[in-house]
Amino acid sequence: MSLFQECKDALSADINIIDDKEQSKFILNLLNEFLTSYGTINCNKLMCTDYLNIENVLNSFKDYTYKVYVVADDSDIPIFQTNLKLALENFYDVSALSSKIFIFNENEIFFPLFPNEFIRYGLLNPK
């Protein structure tokens, strides 16, 4: 069984594989709003908080049932959508997909700081 299949099984209660090219392009453009040209989180555009581990994140977010996209820095892993609660509760399955993984929506992003267990959370600054 592949790592993606394990992740897919862990998120089976709510996972939607994005296979439409236009929708994928929209999602990648959305992701680019958070990133620098080097593929790192642009903390100049975001209010960032670093968490020591996933347990700290889970304790900090109470209302987290909304939809997020997951993009791995690996072209063999499809873009998919799930709810944030499932993504965070199964964070180790999700983050095992690639050394660089992004969990995000229009306003916020979660990004594991590989190779340790730190997780960076970024919230878009109001314009």
TrEMBL record:
<dbReference type="Pfam" id="PF24172">
    <property type="entry name" value="CdiI_ImmP"/>
</dbReference>
<protein>
    <submittedName>
        <fullName>Uncharacterized protein</fullName>
    </submittedName>
</protein>
<dbReference type="InterPro" id="IPR049585">
    <property type="entry name" value="CdiI_EcoliA0-like"/>
</dbReference>
